Amino acid sequence: MAGSSHGHTPAAWTGAIICFIGFCIAGVFMVAAEPVGFWAGIGVVALGGIVGLAMKTAGLGMPKESAEMAAARDRAARAQITA
Asked: Which of 13, 42, 52, 54 is deepest in the core (most CB within 10 A)?
């Protein structure tokens, strides 16, 4: 897996950080027994997903792999196994 850059994009990092902040907010308010704050934290988690998706759509995520690239990767993997 070292050869892939799965998740190493601005869209992934931004979405994950916003979701983590929302998770922390929801956790604090859950312990404090404040349902409104908890649901606000859950809203921030959802916002993180939306922001990440919007950034991916804007071109800041991983590009989609073409069929030619997938075929070349498969051929290289088979050649490596037989060698």
From this structure: 52
Q: For the chain, what are the domain ranges?
A: 10-82
CB-based burial, 22-53: b 16+ in 10 Å, e otherwise: beebbeebeeeeeeeebeebbebbeebeebbe
**pLDDT per residue as tens digits for the range 23-43:** 999 999 999 999 999 999 999
pTM of the model: 0.70
CA angle centred on 32, ends 27 and 33, rounded to 5°: 95
Helix then strand then coil, % of the chain, to nearest 5: 75, 0, 25
